[in-house]
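Protocol step 4 of 6: structure prediction from sequence.
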Amino acid sequence: MEEDMAIEKDDAAPIAPQEVLLQLLADLHAQQLATREEQRQSARERKSERRWSIGIKALLVVAPIAAGAMFLNVSGISFGPFRDVVGVVRIQGEIAQGTLASADKVIPALEDAFSSSRVKHVVVAIDSPGGAPAEAERITRAISVLRQKHPKPVTAIIGNMGASAAYMTAMHADRIVAGKYSLVGSIGAIIAPWQLDQAIAQFHVSQRVYASGKLKAFLNPFTPVSEESDVKAQQLVSHVGEMFVRELVAQRGPRLKAGIDYGTGEVWSGEEARSLGLVDEIGSLESLVRSAPDLKPFHFGPQESAIMRFASAIGRTAAATVVGVSLRDAGQGLR
């Protein structure tokens, strides 16, 4: 009994001071670690809050600017130039109403280029197979009027093609530049109506036409062509072609090679066109800019809006997909 009581007294013996101190130090260290972790977590949260705050503020600043830039891109509005430049106006694609190369699109760009005091040289960059002579006439008249109002050198630069109504526009510049492989010319006029009366006759369909004059409907594709209609159509294109040639001689007479019939509708390479006097020199927009290093090009358009470019890209992708599927199916059928 006494032995048991002695053992219990030994078990209840007090802990040594060194152990108490070590335990306190361990607890203190754990508290310090916990405090540091809390501080780090708090710092991370404050940093995250600052980032969000900066991001929101930046968004509030950038969003209106981006929206404004998008509006300007879609609307075609641009600022500048703010230094001396070569003003570039583009005529791309068919020259016709409703296209990017229509007079309604090109003339405002010409007005901007000519009226800017920063533009020292106007370049008409052409890549077009031609189009409506009346549209080209409006553009050339605008060039003549603007050149008188704002005297500046005007250069037409032909890229891949400058034919028919596109060349009609080019020949009103002070000089014409083209690439060696550019296609130039097609001076003349053409009417190419469809003749569908025999096709619809196979379905026992015909069109009855009442006209005030015998040539009022001479280009109607659903009625047979009369001899008088044939003669009238040829007279019309011949007359327009002759006017084109006379205008060519008036604009470039001294530079044209003698003894050449320019009204055949023929197309020449840039090299041939230069030898015939239709082109003044071989070059490009880049070579012209290099010849005047103090002047950088500034593009006045006209250009497609961002929406139109996006729509065009979708259209091209869809067309490529359809063609690809068709070719694939055709290939499978040939095997």
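Step 5 (inspection) to follow. The first helix runs from residue 2 to 11.
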